[in-house]
Amino acid sequence: DVRWSDFGFPGRSGKESTLWIGSEGANTPCHLDSYGCNLVLQVQGRKRWHLFPPGDTSFLYPTRIPYEESSIFSKVNIANPDLKRFPEFRNSTAHIVTLSPGQVLLVPRHWWHYVESIDPVTVSINSWIELDADHEARVEEAITRMLVCAIKSAENPSDGHVWLNPTEVEATSHETNLQYLNKAVSAYLKCQETSVSGQAHSSSTGAQQRTNTSCKRKRREVGCEPESCTLLTQECDFPTPKAEELQKIPFGPHLIQVLPQSHKTSVMGAVAVESGSGDLLHENEGDHFGKLHCKRKRLLMSNDCETAAHQMDSDCIPCTSPTALSTNDFLDCLVNPRVISLVAQLLLERMKV
């Protein structure tokens, strides 16, 4: 019965959705999703969302350990930040909103979010919307997976549960990861070619909007054979809406802007922005739109657990002398999103030659 098409995405129904059921205190660690943008419908109970714009990435201390495909975690425990260890978090700008039943939240591309259930039972439905930018993001994810699996498996293959998030069943082989990288690069280059030819064609016929179903599936859900890896990359025959086009889409008459909160309010959690009666909670900051996650998201964590990234600090990094560097210290720098982005650009330039 969910019609995501009402929000400007023709042909998208409730079939391309994920169901979330949680209890009071359950939370999803602060993270950003590598792919697409996100629409979230609250069905029962209330959830509080803490959102941070992409420009705050350095203030949130991104990490890829524990590793989960397409999820970049924050080392900061948003509910109880340690400002001595993470002083730059003071510079972040939180957008806090309480999502009530019947309301829909648009999470733009690459926006960080920490989500907590504040009622005894919460039920939500979401859909990740694919974007053209996902092709480059898949290249970056393939590079990250290859490096993480190679280095951590070499260190101690028996400790896969320590550095893999629970949603990642096992570390894939180097051969499989290399196949995935090649498929992702090929899909990106094909998308670029199609985009160039499509721009010339659209001048006379108008651009067509993609209506195919969302296809972000984790590698383990579709298998790891070379031919099945093609399911992870979408053809770029139909261009998806660009940022400026999304701004023009008439989402509805009841838009409620999620304004930034003062740092004291966002950190201490004293006051949350209660949304009014509206169909969409919408934040429009410049060109920060987008995000597909056809991936199965992590289960909501219970309130008696620390966030996954916080666990990384206490469980994953060996307690050695202050001057000793661990494998995780090295890996955290190596797979930093800025480094991975540069490596992806170099690889794509090599393929274009």
From TrEMBL:
One GO cellular component, as annotated? cytoplasm
Provide the alphabetized UniProt keywords: Cytoplasm
PROSITE patterns, sorted: JMJC
Q: Where in the cell is it found?
A: Cytoplasm
Indicate yes or no for the key word Cytoplasm.
yes
The family database entries (InterPro entries) matched by this protein are listed as: Cupin_8 (IPR041667), HSPB1-associated_protein_1 (IPR013296), JmjC_dom (IPR003347), RmlC-like_jellyroll (IPR014710)
Q: Fetch the Pfam families from UniProt.
A: Cupin_8 (PF13621)
Q: Which intervals hold domain JmjC?
A: 1-144
Which superkingdom, per the lineage?
A: Eukaryota
Q: What coarse category fits the chief subcellular location reported for this protein?
A: cytoplasm
TM region positions? none
Tell me the function of this protein: May play a role in cellular stress response.
- Which protein, by its recorded name, is this? HBAP1 protein
The species is Nicator chloris
